[in-house]
Design brief:
By secondary structure, the protein is of the alpha+beta class. It folds into 2 domains: 1-31; 37-133, Ferric Hydroxamate Uptake Protein, Chain A, domain 1 (Beta Complex), CATH 2.170.130.30. Helices cover 30% and strands 35% of the residues. It is built from 2 helices and 8 strands; from the N terminus they run H-E-E-H-E-E-E-E-E-E. It has a 5-stranded mixed sheet with strand order 2-1-8-6-7, with helices on one face. A hairpin with a 2-residue loop joins strand 4 (87-93) and strand 5 (96-97). Residues 62-133 form the Transcobalamin-like C-terminal domain. It comes from Candidatus Woesebacteria bacterium GW2011_GWB1_33_22. This is Transcobalamin-like C-terminal domain-containing protein. InterPro entries: Transcobalamin-like_C.
Length: 137
């Protein structure tokens, strides 16, 4: 009878060990790495020497558009956008609307974006400038 209980106990311990190691392995495989945080700067230039600058704690998943969106929400600044096949287009920041004479153009490290702002991934120490200016065609 003792052998029977001993066999049951050993079997139970063995099964628990297998289940635990499977769960631990599964948890390791499904755990997502934390996104790295870094500093970046966002500048919104309304023209006529009227600009606001914000220091941003960004993540590696952030884009030139995502930090604009989150900071305008945080600051209570109106933001209007339009989604297109190529990406997001900023129609209006505050009361200034993109049109034929002036538009919202973004720059990263003083270089005009070569893709939609929601597709431009940021890196540490990037400076993102949204400027209301005459488009350069």
């Amino acid at each position: 009878m003792k052998k029977y209980w001993y066999l049951v106990a050993v079997t139970a311990i063995g099964l628990l060990t297998i289940v635990y190691s499977f769960r631990t392995k599964q948890d390791i495989q499904t755990a997502k790495p934390q996104a790295q945080e870094f500093k970046t700067t966002l500048i919104i230039d309304y023209g006529d020497e009227n600009a606001n600058s914000y220091e941003i704690n960004a993540k590696e998943t952030d884009t030139a558009f995502s930090i604009l969106k989150s900071e305008t929400e945080k600051q209570g600044i109106y933001l209007e956008t339009q989604q297109y096949d190529f990406g997001v287009f900023v129609k209006k920041i505050g009361i200034l609307e993109s049109g034929t004479k002036k538009s919202w153009i973004y720059y990263v490290n003083n270089v005009s974006g070569d893709k939609a702002a929601d597709l431009y991934s940021l890196k540490e120490n990037d400076t993102v400038l949204w400027k209301y200016e005459t488009p350069k065609y």
